[in-house]
Design a protein that fits this description.
Number of domains: 2
CATH architecture of the largest domain: 3-Layer(aba) Sandwich
Helix content: 40-55%
Largest sheet: 5 strands, parallel
Mean pLDDT: 89
Order of helices and strands: HHHEHEEHEHEHHHH
Distance between the termini: 38 Å
Radius of gyration: 19 Å
Shape: elongated
Strand order of the largest sheet: 2-3-4-1-5
Low-confidence stretches: 1-8
Strand content: 5-15%
CATH superfamily of the largest domain: P-loop containing nucleotide triphosphate hydrolases
Length: 228
């Protein structure tokens, strides 16, 4: 297994429940953080791009580690790096988090592998969590049994953040990085760049690096220069 593949399977330790902005998702977060592992349940999380699904899977892995449980994170956006056989023996992991399951809907080998893996995880009394940008009903799997299995556990719609909440998240992440960033700069980012929260956080990381390297404050002209 290559280093690139290993990197793609490792949870990101900086994405935790403590730095997830809850917004309207308190019931979802409470269940994932306090009940899911205890109940050895399965869950299907869905929502629009940027609502924090990937963050929640990494937070679940972090939570599992704190409880001394084994976990695995797998992004199905990265299927060019591996084949469906990657799911073999995953039932031995106490928490399996599968991101972007909709990325392989319509692909028969992947659907069959996911169906088999789900059954093995459930039979082994371990925890399965997956995410998609659509509801279970909206998946339109070619393998009907897979679609049926995915609806067996808890299904949660993760709500996107409002603009005010996005601003609060960007301020929180900037503070974590030791950055000083004004509301004007944040509003400029929201108005001129993709509003997907994940994309905005990557921009913030890029600006932080440029600000440190050039020893300049984050002003709108400097942001324009860096992101041109």
């Amino acid at each position: 297994m290559t280093q690139l593949l290993l990197k793609g399977l490792q949870p990101q330790s900086h994405l935790t429940f403590s730095n997830f902005y809850v917004g309207k998702n308190k019931n979802v977060i409470d269940y994932l953080q306090k009940e899911l592992l205890r109940q050895r349940a399965s869950a299907y999380l869905w929502g629009a791009s940027g609502c924090g699904l990937t963050h929640l899977l990494h937070a679940l892995c972090d939570n599992a580690i704190l409880q001394k449980k084994t976990s695995m994170y797998l992004s199905l956006k990265e299927t060019s790096l591996y084949s469906p056989e990657i799911l073999m023996n995953m039932e031995q992991v106490e928490l399996l988090c599968v991101d972007d399951i909709d990325a392989v809907v319509g692909n028969a080998p992947w659907e069959k592998a996911l169906f088999d893996a789900y059954n093995r995880v459930r039979d082994n009394h371990n925890v399965w969590v997956c995410t998609a940008k659509t509801s279970v009903r909206g998946l339109k799997c070619s393998l009907a049994d897979l679609q049926s299995r995915l609806s067996w556990g808890q299904v949660f719609h993760v709500e996107s953040l409002t603009e005010a909440e996005r601003i609060a998240v960007l301020h929180l992440r900037a503070k974590e990085r030791g950055m000083i960033i004004s509301d004007d700069v944040i509003r400029f980012l929201l108005n001129h760049y993709p509003r997907d929260l994940g994309a905005l956080l990557l921009l913030l990381e890029k600006l932080d690096g440029a600000s440190l390297a050039q020893k300049k404050r984050l002003t709108i002209p400097f942001v324009k220069e860096i992101l041109a």
